[in-house]
């Protein structure tokens, strides 16, 4: 297997929070088409940035974690940017690991190529499914129709997946969460999570109180509990 099969920004060797009910290694793949204002992984955005972690490093790690780790999660950045992802997943599956994927769904063509290889997907919903709002949440990219197509692929696949939204008060208001919830519920999504925004280092103005407003809104939270079979907040 070529060492440059995928470009890896970093590896988290042990995680109990990135794949439900499994102990996983997380592969942070280099490159992302979006520039979300709330992104904490900005070092992974530039697909051409040099990296020190080689493919062979991941394989060596996994060889020594067989029987300890259950799974490998391909995260980012945006994993669906890299054409070698299907082959990388196949190689990891052959070692006996379950496969998870974190994605924003920007590339449904690439998602179709890997959906049968994964058993769980964390799908990030950035904003209501309105082009201008999605552009604001993704640094000017948008592409809502592609997001919708990716969601449909997940729904049709039978794979276990969750949708989640990071509640950045600079971009979203509680009424936006209602819109997202209505769209997802109508499509057939069963699991939805709200994630608290923690101000990135460059954000010197957003207060914790502003970040908490979504989670103090009991009417909103009760609405979400009624909409989804599984709903939780993540702080």
Please give a quick description of this structure:
The chain has helices at 55-63, 85-94, 108-114, 131-138, 144-157, 174-187, 208-216, 218-227; strands at residues 8-15, 24-29, 71-75, 98-103, 120-124, 160-167, 191-196, 230-234. The protein is α/β, with parallel strands linked by helices.
Structure explained in plain terms:
There is one protein chain. The protein is of the alpha/beta class and 235 residues long. It has helices spanning 55-63, 85-94, 108-114, 131-138, 144-157, 174-187, 208-216, 218-227; strands at 8-15, 24-29, 71-75, 98-103, 120-124, 160-167, 191-196, 230-234. An 8-stranded mixed beta sheet has the order 1-2-3-4-5-6-7-8. The longest helix has 14 residues, at 144-157.
Q: What share of the residues lie within helices?
A: 25-40%
Global geometry: globular
Counted by DSSP, the helix tally is 8
- Average pLDDT, rounded to a whole number, is 96
| Biggest sheet statistics | 8 strands, mixed
Supply the helix-strand structural class: alpha/beta
How many β-strand stretches?
8
What is the straight-line distance between the termini? 39 Å
Poorly predicted runs of 5 or more residues: none
Approximately how much beta-strand content do the residues carry?
A: 15-25%
Order of strands in the sheet with most strands: 1-2-3-4-5-6-7-8
H and E string: EEHEHEHEHHEHEHHE
| Radius of gyration of CA atoms, rounded to a whole number | 18 Å
């Amino acid at each position: 297997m070529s060492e440059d099969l995928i470009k890896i920004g970093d590896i988290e060797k042990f995680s109990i929070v990135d794949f439900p009910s499994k102990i996983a290694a997380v592969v942070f793949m280099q490159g992302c088409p979006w520039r979300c204002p709330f992104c904490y992984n900005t070092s992974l955005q530039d697909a051409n940035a040099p990296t020190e972690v080689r493919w062979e490093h991941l394989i060596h790690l996994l060889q020594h974690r067989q029987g300890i780790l259950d799974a490998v999660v391909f995260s980012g950045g945006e994993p669906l940017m890299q054409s070698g992802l299907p082959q990388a997943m196949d190689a990891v599956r052959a070692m006996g690991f379950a496969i998870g994927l974190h994605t924003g769904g920007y590339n449904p063509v690439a998602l179709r190529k890997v959906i049968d290889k994964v058993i769980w997907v964390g799908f990030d919903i950035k904003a209501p499914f309105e082009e201008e709002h999605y552009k604001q949440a993704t640094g000017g990219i948008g592409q809502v129709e592609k997001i919708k197509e990716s969601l449909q692929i997940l729904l049709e696949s039978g794979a276990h997946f969750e949708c989640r939204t990071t509640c950045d008060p600079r971009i979203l208001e509680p009424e936006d969460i209602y819109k997202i919830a209505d769209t997802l519920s109508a499509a057939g999504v069963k699991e939805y999570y709200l994630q608290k925004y923690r101000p990135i280092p460059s954000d010197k103005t957003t207060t914790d109180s502003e970040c908490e407003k979504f989670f103090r809104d009991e009417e909103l939270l009760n609405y979400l509990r009624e909409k989804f079979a599984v709903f939780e907040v993540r702080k």
